[in-house]
Design brief:
Two copies of one chain form a homodimer.
Chain A: H1 12-29, H2 39-46, H3 50-57, H4 60-71, H5 84-99, H6 102-114, H7 116-140, H8 147-164, H9 178-188
The first copy, chain A, binds a DNA duplex through helix 1 and helix 3.
Amino acid sequence: MSEASGSRPGGRSARVRASVHRAVEDLVAEGVRTEDLTIPVIAARAGVHATTVYRRWGSVAELIASVAEHRFTGDVVVPDTGGLGADLERWATDVARDLADPDTIALMRASIGAGETASCACTADRRTQIAAILERETARGGAVPELDAVVDGLLAPIYYTALFEPAGRDDDGPAPGSRVRALVGKLLGKDQALRP
Amino acid sequence: MSEASGSRPGGRSARVRASVHRAVEDLVAEGVRTEDLTIPVIAARAGVHATTVYRRWGSVAELIASVAEHRFTGDVVVPDTGGLGADLERWATDVARDLADPDTIALMRASIGAGETASCACTADRRTQIAAILERETARGGAVPELDAVVDGLLAPIYYTALFEPAGRDDDGPAPGSRVRALVGKLLGKDQALRP
DNA sequence: ATACTAACGCAGCGATCTTTGCTGAACTCG
DNA sequence: CGAGTTCAGCAAAGATCGCTGCGTTAGTAT
């Protein structure tokens, strides 16, 4: 977690930023309503003066955007299994596992509510990861689908389910990963993994 | 727009509710930040006393949930063209057109930020609409995909794009509906509608 | 090692939000 | 047509939030 964006990277500034970020994550995870997530509350939890938060971030929305940017980047390592299908499956499984955490979903909810910038921060890294996977397969000499097609067929369902179906899918419990496998199969145009 | 959920359907109560709901929609559409969307502001816009809003809804989150529930139900009419593919295409096009409105997206963003209940209100009706389309095709004697498959292949991409890609897709401008057609084609496993 | 600068803590002010008890009007039922 | 209930308007008080100077501390550079 590189906390090194500022004129004074090392020392107190970084400590304060980390503390405030963690406070936001914790409060959101505890189910604090967005309207109750106020700067004095965050500052108190972080052990930092509210003035500092006002000066550095200005508003709760910007602060949440900052937290989302740091939280949703660099968590998932792009795998390299040697095949496109397996790469996508493993990657999507990691993403789905990440989004299965209620705390993560709560933060994403808050980010989406905070505005466009914070929303995009939740998925910006995903696109680049997919692009990397596709590029690798291209380097292997294989044919790859469009980037947008992967987003539609794989990323969108995972995010949609996490956001709008809190109960989850029934077929996701008994056989973990079966849904991801089916999505990848459908995406790549093969029916190999489609038999129920 | 049936504003008839309450102990006193007709009269002042309904008028106040409609007024407050419209005020919320307008303010959200005008780009008012969530943190500035406060109850006194809403009440002032609605021409209603703040006390009334406090007593009836309690918090902004509950109010937004209420608005979302009324806004995202009954807008799209389930079509009946005689074929499953055409039905899905037309229905999805309507949904996409609805979500292309920035005001609608702003309200959905606020709803997602308001919590789980409000979020689900954004898509609850969509599932039943898909189910109706599938049931109709079944009555015709045709084979239909799983409900969840339609959600994954059609609904999820539309919602994902609306939320996380505010700029929109490039291929959505020149040929409106082409993306929906491609999604439906992929979903039904036929390449008939895939030629650009 | 010392001077410099950026960032944090502190205290208090003004504005806004939220709540509460009461009064009056409007809708429904007998 | 009249009685009862529900609901909105009103005003005031308490609490909280967001913001602005100023002093102090902690990194950074010479």
